Amino acid sequence: MIAGFNLAKQSKQTVAGLVQKRFAHDLIVSPKTGRTIIRTGGGGRSSSNGHVVTVFGCTGFLGRYLINRLAREGAHIIVPYRDEDDMRHLKVMGDLGKIVPMEIHLRNKDSLEAAIRHSDTVYNLLGRDYETRNFSFSDIHVEAAGVIAELAQKHDIDRFIQMSSMNADVDSPSRFLSTKAEGEQLVRSIFPSATIVRPSFMYGQEDRFLARLAMSRGLSVRINGGMTKVRPVNVSDVATAMHKMLDGYNTAGETFELVGDKVYTYKELLDYIKETTNLDIGDINVPKPIASLMAKAMNLLPWQTLGADEIERMMLDDKLTGVKTFKDLEIEPSSLEITGIQYLRRFRTNLYSDEPLKKGVVGAKKVFHTSYL
């Protein structure tokens, strides 16, 4: 062991006329495959952390945050895409040549295999909030996940990290959640050391959670009287957790439920949005059967709307099942009350700025004092 450390200390590399030393902590040996991963450089995007990572679903909401964290350490990242316009913003996140786009099709196994054959880590972030004519929930969450896990096992990938969802359950009334649970089981049966990640509703820039509540004028949040309890989590915290799993071999084979620091009802969230944005959001409650019919009708529109299955999910409380959480990754989740303003500020009307300053209040109409469970 000592000889190994001395060897690592004596290892040198000449770059641009400078001598770079490599130390023992620059070397990582995979306990699964014995593959050696060596860091080079002084750190940052122009260095290399030795990893080649494939991120399926990278063009989605969470993908950009995860790739940003991987790229700033110098990882080589394979970016599988279907539409070239969807991945252009990812290319500038890494140094020249570090972000490698590859066109894929989920029903073309050869294209999927080409995207992972040179990688040591695979993230599967694939997921859909609604079904389309081309892809059902089962196609994305089960069949595609199974094929990717099978290929990862075939090419002896070190780490496989599967994105699932909070409340995933094969017996769930929501097809989204039941297929997510089926996907978990299939991935684990093929790749036993896979890490399963179950985040709650994620919020952040361009999300489909806080933004939808702010734009909905209260219609969507009055399902179940607005009393469904959720634990929304900052997308940056989820990306940080998944980034730590890259070298966290102690997370292999584990399941993580990533939730925010507090429990909120939809009604409390709407009150917070009202006071933060000064929006006049209504309080109409819509019974579930009527809401489901409305969602089905809106799905006939040519653009993305609220799906009927999402109505089912809005009826379910977030419940922890006793698996690992942010605490096991030594991460303190962000507070929605502190960070939410970053994402809601753009919804403020001109009336917010026209409000006169009130005694004891600086830069805001009111202060949010609602207590949470």
Name of the CATH superfamily of the domain at 26-204 and 233-263 and 324-329? NAD(P)-binding Rossmann-like Domain
Query: What overall form do the CA principal axes indicate?
Result: globular
Q: Helical amount among residues, as a percent range?
A: 25-40%
The radius of gyration over CA amounts to 23 Å
End-to-end distance, in Å?
51 Å
Write down how many β-strands occur, each being a DSSP E stretch of 2 or more residues: 15
- Please outline the major beta sheet: 7 strands, parallel
Mean pLDDT: 84
CATH class type of the domain at 26-204 and 233-263 and 324-329: Alpha Beta
CATH topology descriptor of the domain at 26-204 and 233-263 and 324-329: Rossmann fold
Class based on secondary structure composition and strand pairing? alpha/beta
Strand order of the largest sheet: 7-6-5-8-9-10-14
The tally of helices reads: 13
Strand content bin: 15-25%
Contiguous low-pLDDT stretches (5 residues minimum) are: 1-11, 14-18, 360-373
Order of secondary-structure elements = HEEEEEHEHEHEHEHEEHEEHEEHHHHH
CATH architecture of the domain at 26-204 and 233-263 and 324-329: 3-Layer(aba) Sandwich
Organism: Mortierella polycephala
GO molecular function, one term: protein-containing complex binding
InterPro entries: ComplexI_NDUFA9_subunit, Epimerase_deHydtase, NAD(P)-bd_dom_sf
GO cellular component, one term: mitochondrion
